[in-house]
Amino acid sequence: MEPLKLVLEGVGHRYPGSETETFSGVSVELVPGAKALLAGPVGAGKTTLLLRIAGLRKGPGRVLLGDGDPEDRSVIRARPGVGFLWQSPEDGLFLPGVLEDVALGPVNDGCATDAALDRARASLRDLGAEHLASRDVARLSRGEKQLVALAGLLAREPGLLLLDEPLSALDAGARRTVLALLAAHPATVLLATHSGFAALEEAGFVAAIALRPAREGRAGRSIAPAG
Amino acid sequence: MRLDPRVALVFAVAATLSALSGVAAAAGVLLVALALAAAMRLDWRRFLPLAGSVGIFALLAPLSPGPALAAVVKGLAVSVAIVVSVSAARWDRLLAALQGAGLGRVGVAFLAIVLSHLESSGRDAARSFEGLVLRGGFRGARGVLSSTPLVLARTLRRALERADRTAEALELRGFSGRLPALARFRLRPADVAGAAAAALVVALAVAGRLPWNR
Questions:
Q1: With an 8 Å Cβ cutoff, are B92 and A96 in contact?
Q2: Cβ-based contacts of B171 with chain A (< 8 Å)
Q3: What is the spatial distance between Cα B206 and Cα B37, in angstroms, rounded to a whole number?
Q4: Residue B95 lies in a domain
Q5: Are residues B23 and B69 in the same domain?
Q6: Is residue A178 part of a domain?
């Protein structure tokens, strides 16, 4: 799929029953293929903002993806072309076998099983994780699950990758592999993290959004230069 | 040793129908299923979920009149055969076999979500158990009595919390009730054993219907 443009206009979020907004006024434009960072400490709302962009949360402001999608839908549904990596990788894994789980997305996108399995193998190979293909998901380490979950996203050939702390459980070698792959990948990438900025910026990621946590009744705010 | 999921399904269906056909056949199915479990070296803990009902059956059996005892034996045979079949192949492969046999997307999605959730809840329960053991729980009879409800409550709470996350994750992955199809069937020694077991339980049912066995 072609890389997608992402535009956020005054996006905010407030949990039901809360008097303060978790974050507010997030505005940014990511050109197709941009590699951007979403920074902020733990609890600042990074995951919520990513879910909002993916289409699974509603709130003030607008999220525009590609050429439109003005959020006028009555049903909350994931936007097409978006790959989402959960902070806890097991949240995004579903089937007990690694290869079958990675192929799940392509199969549901309409690929024949053989083609989907080929794409799954290629994604695992790109991440240096082809040796995991025949393993059971339940027996993987957290870092291995992170690689498998990422392979599952890449196999669908998304136009926008929303990654929540994708490097948190990886060793140094796997981090280098993943960063190099993401930097060279055609998709637009928004990567949420609270650490390791130097390595990410060195790999070509640009700080785009910084969330501050809401404290003592004061609403969170964002610093979001257009990029 | 794992069975091809298609063979495991055939065994499950044959064993269920055979066990329901008569008490003698049910007893035979029970033995065949246990023999298959032994041949596959199934972990005995797979049968733990049946322990409660087996215990109740064992307690009630001496007190049960004929028809109730027959129902108990049939139920036990069906339960054991299904546990053996489900354990003989990965659940997603069994579902893929059902998908190949014509089960629709809604059915596949429903069963996949239930089975995935049960698997995750099992892992949660194991983690909660280990966590409590490391913190001094489950020591002595009193410890077991006080710790068990904690593990059950925490597992249930996490299962409920995970339900929303699972729904969102499946939505984000574009899941619409399709699983990767099974590869072309290739007969392996394990499948020969599974097919023989299926043929045996069918033979038991047929033998029970022969005139001189009535």
A1: yes
A2: 56, 77-78
A3: 23
A4: no
A5: yes
A6: no
Residues with Cβ within 8 Å of A77's Cβ and at least 6 positions away in sequence, in order, are: A55, A56, B171
Check pLDDT > 60 for residue A73: no
- Among B64, B133, A39, residue whose Cα is nearest residue A50: A39
The partner residue sitting opposite A96, judged by closest CB among B119, B172, B181, is B119
Residues B115 and B77 in one domain: no
| A90: chain B residues, CB-CB within 8 Å | 120
Q: Which ipTM score applies to this complex?
A: 0.84
Q: Is B61's pLDDT higher than 80?
A: no
pLDDT digits (tens, 9 = 90+) for A83-127: 999 999 988 999 999 999 999 999 999 999 999 999 999 999 999
Q: Over the stretch A172-192, which tens digit does the pLDDT of each residue have? A: 999 999 999 999 999 999 999
Query: Which chain A residue has its CA at the smallest distance from B95's CA?
Result: A95
Q: Is B145 strand, coil or helix?
A: helix
In the A/B pair of chains, how many CB contacts fall below 8 A?
70
Judge: B174–A78 Cβ closer than 8 Å, yes or no. Answer: yes
B16 and B53 share a domain?
yes
Residue A86, chain B, CB below 8 Å: the answer is yes
Sheet of A6-13: strand order equals: A23-30, A6-13, A62-65
Domain containing B72 equals 1-90+185-214
